[in-house]
């Protein structure tokens, strides 16, 4: 996990990052959001799409409205429903009249511990995109790429003909994604990484952190990193039966205390996947190799 770059950050500024794409950084930095959520505006002139509108923060909504100006908003698109991604969809839809399009809503008990921004229970899309379905506007087409794992409803959006993919929280250059059971699934996450590795995207625009200009190289390294974590868990459990809390300090040396819970949840996600594959077993909170 990389450290955030020194300030000033371009919070609230509309940055033109390629001919059809602008980026606006929200004022919500944290250990899990890096410098904040990056909202992308696709299209210029006749109509645009807003991808990952971000948190419902008045300053961020004002920055988005300034960036959009008088342009017609064709759609407000969400990669998934964590609270740093989708809550601004509702006030932005009220102000622009645009439909909310993209990932499906989630409905499950969220009383358990969460390592990230938590889920947006009020997300209500006007249209859910299945894998391969597209949203079109003047001069652009955005196609949904289903990438469950970080959460079950995660989508990426491919900007056709440009080679750009908006990767949400699935692939980021500054950090691996947190996979939090029960909704996050490590097996699905690994399959979704493999899916992106097989694509030929030119650049990834994540919701947090800098653009990824060598997507296949990064994704390959992420797959390798997760396999190393699996092997590490199997080695440690081969030495002795252990709880998750005992595995984390052995696996994550010098970890920021703020990230211990996230690491424990990630290890748990690995263990559940290994259990499903018949490689480990548990008795209450104790894990061992099968």
Describe the structure.
The structure is a single chain. The chain has a 7-stranded mixed β-sheet. A 5-stranded mixed β-sheet has the order 8-9-10-11-12, with no helix packed on it. Strands 13-14 form a two-stranded antiparallel sheet. Helix content is 28%, strand content 22%. The protein has 290 residues and is α/β, with parallel strands linked by helices.
Number of helices: 6
Beta-strand proportion: 15-25%
Major β-sheet profile: 7 strands, mixed
Unreliable segments of 5+ consecutive residues:
112-117
Q: What is the CA-CA span between the terminal residues? A: 32 Å
Share in helix: 25-40%
Q: In total, how many beta strands?
A: 14
Strand order of the largest sheet: 1-2-3-4-5-6-7
Shape: elongated
Q: Round the mean pLDDT to the nearest integer and report it.
A: 95
Order of helices and strands: EEEEHEHEEEEEEHEHHHEE
Topology:
Blueprint: E1 14-18, E2 21-25, E3 38-42, E4 48-51, H1 58-68, E5 73-78, H2 89-96, E6 100-102, E7 127-128, E8 134-137, E9 140-146, E10 155-159, E11 164-168, H3 186-197, E12 203-206, H4 215-239, H5 244-251, H6 260-276, E13 280-283, E14 286-289
Helix pairs in contact: 3-4, 5-6
